[in-house]
Batch of 2 targets.
Target 1
Amino acid sequence: MKIRTIAFNTFGSFLRDKLIILFCIVFACVVLLMMTPMLAVKAMTTVSNAQQMQAMVLGIVATIMSMMSGFGSLLAAWAAADSVATEMKSGTILAVMARPVERWEFLLGKFLGVMLMMAIYVLLMFGLSYLLAWMGGERIQSTPWVLLVYPMVRYAMYAAIAMLLVTVFHSVVTFGIVLGLSVLALMVAPTSRSSTIMMRFIRIPLYQVLPSTTLLSEDRFLSITHASLKQVGWLDHATTLAYGLDYALVYLLLAMLSFHYRSLKRD
Amino acid sequence: MSNPAIEFREVTKVYRRRLGGTEICALTNVSFEVSPGQVCAFLGPNGAGKTTGISILMGFLYPDSGAIRVLGYEPGDVRAKQQIGFVPENFAFYKHLSAEKLMRFHFALSGRPVIGTEELIRELLLKVKLNGYERLKIAKYSRGMVQRLGIAQAMLGNPQLLVLDEPTSGLDPAGRKEVRDLMSSLKAEGKTIFLSSHLLSEVEQICDRVVIVDRGRLVRSGTMEELLGSSDRVEIVIDQLPHPTLPALEECGAAIERGAHGVKITVNTMRKRELAEALWAAGCDVISITPVRSSLEELFLKLVGNGGGPV
């Protein structure tokens, strides 16, 4: 009951958060701008260049989807950091924590509020994937849950990391660290081209410690450019998702521990 | 004897900067008790450690040493918080909510079912004169209205202990009187109130007990009678002062103050009878004889005005 109340209140605050609204508007504009060349290419398609144009269209679609997916991670991190930091800054946390609410309940409520917002984001992303694939002349042959659950777990990881960091640092510093971590995680991923230049003994431990978003990317199973689902067994799905959930849980528990010993006062 | 509602034992809190290593001692070995049903004022100049003390009491801050019990529990224990109503200094709310929604939010945080609370919320808002503004966004409230809303939310769930950090700040004289009356009625209901305030005249009117801190140290703690009622002087008010009585007054070491409504003579308690009889015999009309009680403000300034010091 208390956790749910905090979660819904957090979600309500996001809907009024000017910075989040601004981010989303700017991002929506970028996506719409990127759709313009895609539609232009589609319009210029003739029988003779059909194959080449189709590849271009699908390339743009894939780029938009990757961008949207990556933006989601940053949005989750920012929302998680900001949801706690704003309460501290404004002092509203004092009134909330004066109620019979445990500190972990407060943090869990905040986390669930973030995940509620990210669920809507994932649904929008899901709809956009189908729309773009349809516009690109392809049909996504995927089980929908892959496109829904994988990003959610990925965002849960980022939100949990941000929540841990914000119990120690300022929200802007937290966001910067998360941004740095996500870039580094991409660099050390085995699939990354830049990883080859890194020394092996640095890359492997970093890959194990950092949030491996490539592992949790729906691209592992679905490539929009081919719009077909790669055949993966349930065990692989279960192991990968368990990795992500475990990662998020560990960070969330660490965040709760750190928050437990934190002084609650107006920043 | 019942357990104290609030108990501070040798509480010390030091603020440390992460970098630089500067240390600020906010509280040093502070000890005091507040019994159930008492109204206790936590006084001190700015930066004395009042808000730190209240934050420790509420479980927002952890002390470096010492022990605190609130209603028999550790600070921050949900069982204690279930019985506490709290108004922080400069109360901050979610500005996008209305008073009604905020009250419902706090009700839900108390772990109580929200359904069927409309009447109770309306009653509480009426008590703080916010009826008619229930659906107005808090962002549009004046500072005084926000403060009154803070008091209303603190009273949610019929708490046994009210912790109020500057409850009358931002209120106009009428608002302050309303809060004072509200506290008096809560006192009559047997609630324990622990408040910090700079308005000493108000504190003097409603409080049973006073705890004064300065620079993190306890400078005085006790009941109002203990602190203010120990004067050895009385004030005799007469209608007029006949000239022949002056030598007798001088001999008694009396202080004379002439006013529009009579003459005020302050003298040592030991000599009051002798002087009153002399004045009576000289044909004066003795209007009143009252013990001189120093005001809380005088005591406060005496204790902390020159920097204070430990007891």
Target 2
Amino acid sequence: MNTRSQVGTLLAVFLALSPLAVAAAPRLTASVGFGGHFVPETLTPLRVHIFGIGNAFSGFLLVTQSVGNPWRGEAQSRMMIPLQLLGAMEQESVIPIYDFIDPLRISLLSEEQDVLAETTVDLRAHRKQAPFPVAVGDLSSHLDDSFVIADSTTLPVNWAGYEAVSSLWIGALDEGISQPQWKAIGQWVLAGGTIVLFSGAGFYRLDSPFLRALLPLAEPTVTVVDGVSVLGGEMRHGAANVIDRGALPLAISHRYGAGAVLLCTVGPADVARNEVSQIAAAVAPADLLSLASQVEELQEATVLQRPGFPMVGLLVVVSLSGFTLVVYRTRTTKQTLVGLLIISGALCVLSGLYTNQTKTAALIYDTKTKLSIQNYFGFVINYTDLFGTDTGTNRTTVSTDAAFIQTLPRNLLEHDLTIAVQDGEARLSLDRGEHRSLRAFSSGALPVALSAPETGKVRVVNGLKGPLATAIVIRDGAAFPIGEVPVGEKVFPLRQAVSLRDAVLGQEHHDALFRSLCAQFFFGSGTWLVGVREQASVQHIDGTRTKVRDLLVVAVAGGDRD
Amino acid sequence: MTRRCGLVDRESWQQFFTLLLFCGIGLLLTIPTARVIRDFDRISFLPGVPIFFHAYALFVGIFGLNAGATSAARKEGGRALVGLLAGRVLVAQALLLPYFVFARALYPSKDAAFALIILYVSVVGLLCAIAARLIENPGRRNAGHGFLVKYGLFAVYYVIPLLGAPIASPLVAVTRLLDGESAACLIVAFAIPLSLLAGCWLFLCRRLGGERGV
């Protein structure tokens, strides 16, 4: 074979293999937040597009970010997210962003955790210091620079992704908003978000069952008044006009759960700029429902497990006197030794009996508080407050099937804040005296249901593993304490209504949670069941003796006639 | 066996009593004073310091010194000497066992560390006893001289390593063992008293052989 044919053969082999080589080199692009905008120390949507892999590919995304600086202290956050690709090889996740100085690093890993591709996202350019308003649809000509204009297709389908949004303005849209996006928006509003919705002629393009549940109008219909398309309907309980244009109600607002919905009855094209300014002034920024401070109080008031001082003092006194008596009352060394060993053995047994499970110190105190709000949308917020007591490193694992974020202390120098998330578990370690708070936002409902079989009665179905220690039924703002709710089905008569302010669950810390919930959440319309369940146990998590305090606060809407 | 040659008797009981008393005080001080998490470190005395184990390492060492001195005063010798010294250290450990059962409630899931600490401190106690027996020469006229040398060396062993090689000091070694340090750290912690013990043992054997020769 001459040189020319050898070169030709090599070239042919190279050309034949080159498509394989291209196919075997995946790459990815990523974007965070809304148009790249985010607020540090909040949950933020992350969209990753992956190229060069097949549909059957399974692997992970590893999201790594550095936190802090040499003065404040440095830490690292690592999250391993299983790939759940949407169409067009796209992955949407919600991740915590703690800092903005170093870029966010996103790696594509194979099932064997080999790095296949990597990209970084510069976070410095689009950082916001506080939650910001986001607008989708044809609104940009009405709004000032504080708004982030986003594409409606990029709105997150996980309600946790809206944490950094102060209000979501929705204008006329050609493509509408998908059902998962509406559901996420509804969950976010229920949890304390604020939406401003422009309707008018464009209402039907936005229309969905989820949207109708949020609207301050029942049976909405579009009519034409003086040449302008106007959305009208029956005002829901608690809804109010906030801006009028002559006889026309221009903006109607109502509270929905912990959030608010402001409906502009006309489309964006029919609203004057000064009217948009009036609407903006009437919008209350989102304030997500939070029991964090009550949970922290609860954690700080947790009683430490330890042996008591009097018993140690008694042990020392009994040991000294017992041993001394033996030494001075026995005649031979053998008798002395046997006597000492008998007393020592007896004291060992008594000490062991005293320092049983309830007197043995826990190395980690884990206060888990789950807040579950259940209605047409429903959401769950899990608070995990951890406290380490051991002189060494206290390792623990927190189960997480949801987007979660930890509250960072100002001083990072004394702490190792690395959290490794993998297989739905977050592994972290605590130093002695270190307090760590995590909050996780998710969806899902608990097996608790409420209905009204007849006037003056409610039926509660409790499918939990144990009873609700105490519960209150709230009907149109009036409270009816019903006491314990056992497992199974039970009908409770509603007698002796008290005002919501005077209602008590019984225990001080349960009442603190209930009062905080009532102050943030609108229970003024419909029927709700609010119940509390508490359990305490000692578990060995990752080999660490952990005292776990599980608290469940559940609020279930219902009460419609069977 | 006469009472005078026993492991525990009225004359030597004060050494055991002192050990039990001070370890008991150490145990009391180790219990966190806070009742709730909010006060965890606010009202604690020496927060996070395992005072019981420091007291244990310190006072077993002192007990060993006294046991060695008593042995010298009693002119105990021969093959049984090391057995007697080791026996006294072991009896002291047996008397402290109720404290360990109590301390286990303060440091759960650390049974292996407890076993290693007891073993380590027993070695240190025996080392101190043999060293004291060597220093407290029965024939020495000036007893005060032996006392000073004995406690001077004890201070050097316990305190000086804190300046450069903390693991060599029993006060730090027990903390490291409690925290579950690496195997290398464990080996170093044990190697130091064991090598010193071996040296003292050989020296004692030569000394006792010499005394018999005289």
